[in-house]
Amino acid sequence: MAQLSQDQLKAEVGRAAIRYVTPGTIIGVGTGSTVAYFIEALGEMPSPVAGAVSSSERSTAALRALGIPVLDANEVDHLDLYVDGADEIDPNGCMIKGGGGALTREKIVSSLAERFVCIADASKRVDVLGTFPLPVEVVPMAEASVVRRFAAGVLGTSGTAVLRRNDDGTPYVTDNGQHILDVRGLRIDDPLAMESAVNDWPGVVTVGIFARQRASLCLLGTPDGVATLTFG
Ligand SMILES: O=C[C@H](O)[C@H](O)[C@H](O)COP(=O)(O)O
Question: Is the pTM of this model over 0.80?
Fold first, then answer.
């Protein structure tokens, strides 16, 4: 049998996540190429969801295009389910997220949810977080100081933070009007401590470590099928 491509694995887990969705409920929806398949599958449910709280303008547009009502996060005080991808996921369900720039809203929406179902292809599974450059959303006037703090080191590891840019060289601007630093070279042995430490720095809006709001389970797309990883 031919090997499935990374994109096919993303499609498999995106579709598989539908089994956790209860028709008629309001769910939280993440952002990214894997979530795009999940949204597609949501649109095909025979009994649809009542609505979704979205984590990005991109996902909002995709949901609305399928006729799925999008609610503001302020209108909802609890969600049973949040479904989103990850850039890396460790053996405890801690993740690096934000490769697509949506980390802040993803953290807000996932914080409302009882259960975080992560959907990812097998390349995202790591033993220690940090190979994928860590996205950090920052207020622009704090960029230089945050770059210096990572270079000086935090919790025994240091990294090189670089401003994320668009193809035309202009700074990438998030849905919240802020910038992103991508930090290379970190070894994140204690994701919870690192999340807290970086969150405390002035000017940091959101660090792309999801350790407080880690995944409850992960549907991992592997060449042998979809594996379900659960985290205690
Ligand atoms: O900001 C983007 C999100 O955190 C995504 O969930 C993450 O980057 C994974 O994206 P993809 O499913 O495209 O690999």
Answer: yes
Q: Give residues with Cβ within 8 angstroms of 108, minimum separation 6.
A: 55, 73
Q: State the Cα–Cα distance between residues 177 and 213, nearest whole angstrom.
A: 24
Answer yes or no: do 162 and 117 share one domain.
Answer: no
pLDDT of residue 35: 98
The answer to whether residues 83 and 183 belong to one domain is no
Residue nearest to atom 3 of ligand 1 (CA): 98
Q: How far is the CA of 129 from the centre of ligand 1 (A)?
A: 15
Enter the ipTM.
0.98
Does 86 share its domain with 188? no
Burial level of 44, CB count in 10 A (0-12/13-18/19+)?
exposed
Distance 87 CA to ligand 1 centre (A): 6
| pLDDT single digits (tens) 8-30 | 999 999 999 999 999 999 999 99
Q: Which helix (H) or strand (E) element contains residue 8?
A: helix 6-16
Which among 34, 89, 136 is the best mutation to test ligand 1's pocket, defined by most ligand atoms within 8 Å of the CB? 34
Is 57 annotated as catalytic?
no
